[in-house]
Amino acid sequence: MMTVSFHDWEEDENPLNGTVVRSSDELRKILLGLQGREPFACELEGENGACLVLGIGEVGTAQYNREERGPYFLAVTNGNVITDTEVEFLAGGTPTPFDARFCLPFDDIIKIAVYFMETGATCPSFSWEMI
Q1: Considering the entire predicted model, what is its pTM?
Q2: Which domain covers residue 123, as residue numbers?
Q3: Percent of the chain at pLDDT above 90?
Q4: What is the domain count for the chain?
Protein backbone atom coordinates (compact mmCIF):
# COMPACT_ATOMS: atom_id res chain seq x y z
CA MET A 1 0.00 0.00 0.00
CA MET A 2 1.32 3.42 -0.88
CA THR A 3 0.71 6.69 0.90
CA VAL A 4 -1.30 9.46 -0.75
CA SER A 5 -1.37 13.20 -0.12
CA PHE A 6 -4.74 14.94 0.09
CA HIS A 7 -5.34 18.31 -1.62
CA ASP A 8 -8.64 20.23 -1.48
CA TRP A 9 -9.12 22.08 -4.78
CA GLU A 10 -11.86 24.32 -3.40
CA GLU A 11 -10.77 25.37 0.12
CA ASP A 12 -7.13 26.40 0.37
CA GLU A 13 -7.56 26.79 4.14
CA ASN A 14 -8.73 23.20 4.65
CA PRO A 15 -6.53 21.88 7.51
CA LEU A 16 -6.41 18.51 5.72
CA ASN A 17 -4.49 20.01 2.77
CA GLY A 18 -1.18 18.22 2.40
CA THR A 19 -2.15 15.46 4.80
CA VAL A 20 -0.29 12.24 4.08
CA VAL A 21 -2.78 9.39 4.34
CA ARG A 22 -1.29 6.04 5.35
CA SER A 23 -4.27 3.70 5.71
CA SER A 24 -7.47 2.91 3.85
CA ASP A 25 -9.46 3.45 7.06
CA GLU A 26 -8.01 6.96 7.39
CA LEU A 27 -8.83 7.66 3.74
CA ARG A 28 -12.45 6.48 4.14
CA LYS A 29 -12.86 8.65 7.24
CA ILE A 30 -11.54 11.75 5.44
CA LEU A 31 -13.73 11.26 2.37
CA LEU A 32 -16.88 10.54 4.36
CA GLY A 33 -16.20 13.61 6.51
CA LEU A 34 -16.10 15.82 3.41
CA GLN A 35 -19.28 14.55 1.81
CA GLY A 36 -21.59 17.06 3.53
CA ARG A 37 -20.05 20.07 1.80
CA GLU A 38 -21.23 21.68 -1.42
CA PRO A 39 -19.92 19.41 -4.21
CA PHE A 40 -16.21 20.09 -4.82
CA ALA A 41 -13.05 18.54 -6.23
CA CYS A 42 -10.04 17.20 -4.39
CA GLU A 43 -6.94 15.27 -5.36
CA LEU A 44 -5.13 12.25 -4.01
CA GLU A 45 -1.51 12.35 -5.10
CA GLY A 46 0.20 8.98 -4.92
CA GLU A 47 3.82 8.53 -4.01
CA ASN A 48 4.18 6.82 -7.42
CA GLY A 49 3.35 10.10 -9.22
CA ALA A 50 -0.18 9.09 -10.22
CA CYS A 51 -3.13 11.30 -9.23
CA LEU A 52 -6.78 10.63 -8.60
CA VAL A 53 -9.06 13.69 -8.73
CA LEU A 54 -12.36 13.09 -6.97
CA GLY A 55 -15.63 14.97 -7.16
CA ILE A 56 -17.07 14.83 -3.65
CA GLY A 57 -20.79 15.30 -3.00
CA GLU A 58 -23.99 13.29 -2.81
CA VAL A 59 -22.59 11.58 -5.90
CA GLY A 60 -19.01 11.69 -7.05
CA THR A 61 -16.61 11.42 -9.95
CA ALA A 62 -13.14 9.95 -10.30
CA GLN A 63 -10.47 11.07 -12.77
CA TYR A 64 -7.12 9.26 -12.95
CA ASN A 65 -3.89 10.35 -14.55
CA ARG A 66 -0.45 8.87 -14.41
CA GLU A 67 1.44 11.79 -15.92
CA GLU A 68 0.89 15.49 -15.37
CA ARG A 69 0.18 16.25 -19.03
CA GLY A 70 -2.26 13.44 -19.78
CA PRO A 71 -3.92 11.24 -20.72
CA TYR A 72 -6.78 11.43 -18.23
CA PHE A 73 -9.29 8.67 -17.54
CA LEU A 74 -12.77 9.16 -16.06
CA ALA A 75 -14.62 6.37 -14.29
CA VAL A 76 -17.88 5.55 -16.07
CA THR A 77 -21.06 4.47 -14.31
CA ASN A 78 -21.72 0.74 -14.60
CA GLY A 79 -25.12 1.25 -16.24
CA ASN A 80 -26.93 2.52 -13.17
CA VAL A 81 -27.13 6.22 -14.00
CA ILE A 82 -28.03 7.89 -10.73
CA THR A 83 -28.81 11.35 -12.06
CA ASP A 84 -30.34 12.49 -15.32
CA THR A 85 -28.48 15.79 -15.42
CA GLU A 86 -24.86 16.84 -15.27
CA VAL A 87 -23.41 17.51 -11.82
CA GLU A 88 -21.10 20.42 -11.00
CA PHE A 89 -18.14 20.20 -8.64
CA LEU A 90 -16.36 23.35 -7.45
CA ALA A 91 -12.63 23.80 -8.01
CA GLY A 92 -11.12 27.15 -7.15
CA GLY A 93 -14.60 28.70 -7.02
CA THR A 94 -15.38 27.56 -10.56
CA PRO A 95 -18.18 25.01 -11.08
CA THR A 96 -16.98 22.20 -13.35
CA PRO A 97 -19.79 20.14 -14.93
CA PHE A 98 -19.62 16.35 -15.33
CA ASP A 99 -21.97 14.37 -17.53
CA ALA A 100 -24.29 11.99 -15.65
CA ARG A 101 -22.49 8.91 -16.98
CA PHE A 102 -19.38 9.98 -15.03
CA CYS A 103 -21.31 10.40 -11.76
CA LEU A 104 -21.15 7.42 -9.43
CA PRO A 105 -22.62 6.58 -6.04
CA PHE A 106 -20.35 7.86 -3.29
CA ASP A 107 -19.66 4.31 -2.05
CA ASP A 108 -18.12 3.60 -5.47
CA ILE A 109 -15.92 6.70 -5.17
CA ILE A 110 -14.58 5.38 -1.87
CA LYS A 111 -13.88 1.96 -3.46
CA ILE A 112 -12.01 3.63 -6.32
CA ALA A 113 -9.99 5.80 -3.90
CA VAL A 114 -9.05 2.85 -1.66
CA TYR A 115 -8.02 0.76 -4.68
CA PHE A 116 -5.90 3.67 -5.92
CA MET A 117 -4.21 3.91 -2.54
CA GLU A 118 -3.56 0.16 -2.47
CA THR A 119 -2.20 -0.13 -6.03
CA GLY A 120 -1.61 3.29 -7.59
CA ALA A 121 -3.88 2.25 -10.48
CA THR A 122 -7.47 2.49 -11.72
CA CYS A 123 -9.96 0.12 -10.13
CA PRO A 124 -10.74 -2.70 -12.61
CA SER A 125 -14.32 -2.99 -11.29
CA PHE A 126 -15.15 0.13 -13.31
CA SER A 127 -14.83 1.17 -16.93
CA TRP A 128 -12.51 4.12 -17.58
CA GLU A 129 -12.86 6.46 -20.53
CA MET A 130 -9.85 8.39 -21.82
CA ILE A 131 -10.49 12.11 -22.21
Answers
A1: 0.93
A2: 4-130
A3: 82
A4: 1
